[in-house]
TrEMBL record:
InterPro entries: SAM-dependent_MTases_sf. The keyword Methyltransferase applies. This is Phospholipid N-methyltransferase. The keyword NAD does not apply. One of its GO terms (biological process) is methylation. It comes from the Bacteria. Keywords: Methyltransferase, Transferase. It comes from Fodinibius sediminis.
Length: 182
């Protein structure tokens, strides 16, 4: 995925928060808690052009599932080119994630990866997305996010009751990495 495509999306779409794809270092750091040796149900908010999917799919078991949400049309077109029966794609906002996903995913999701710019969301929408995420995850499931600042720690603590943070400097821009457990 070229930086040019991200730049075009960044300037045309207020919901695109980055001018470059996420670095491999950031992807590996965010995905570190995921046990890819086991069947997993993973949902990604803000999948962009699929850099996390391209990392995860070759490492996932045949019975794992990966659900991608992306609202940007240009980036969604890139996602549609990935051909894998384990993928489920939504060109929808995660504001209604519980209404969009099949019932069997609710309370059964192992991990949520999120790159959506929570700082762009109003407080009520941010709270709603995080509360829906808690409901979507199984007990012990994890919400894994990467953001350009430390603004998400307090909302995660309110929604999940916990949050661990770290940094990945080898990304443009550097990212705060979050992990919250249900």
């Amino acid at each position: 995925m070229s930086t040019l495509t991200y730049l075009k999306s960044f300037f045309k779409d207020k919901d695109v928060a980055s001018v470059t794809p996420t670095s491999r270092f950031c992807i590996q750091r965010v995905c570190r808690p995921i046990d890819l040796e086991k069947d997993q149900l993973i949902v990604e908010y803000g999948a962009g052009a699929g850099v996390f999917a391209k990392y995860l799919l070759p490492r996932m078991t045949p019975d794992s599932r990966l659900v991608l949400f992306e609202t940007n049309e240009l980036l969604f077109e890139k996602l549609k080119k990935m051909d894998d029966p384990r993928l489920l794609l939504y060109n929808e906002s995660v504001e209604h994630v519980l209404q969009l996903l099949p019932e069997e995913f609710i309370g059964k999701t192992d991990y949520i990866i999120s790159g959506i710019p929570f700082s762009f969301l109003d407080e009520q929408t941010r709270k709603s997305v995080l509360e829906q995420s808690v409901e979507l995850l199984r007990e012990g499931g994890k919400f894994l996010a990467y953001q350009t600042s430390g603004h998400l720690k307090e909302p995660l603590v309110k929604a999940f009751g916990n949050s661990k943070t770290g940094w990945e400097w080898r990304n443009i821009p550097p990212m705060t990495i979050y992990e919250a457990r249900k």
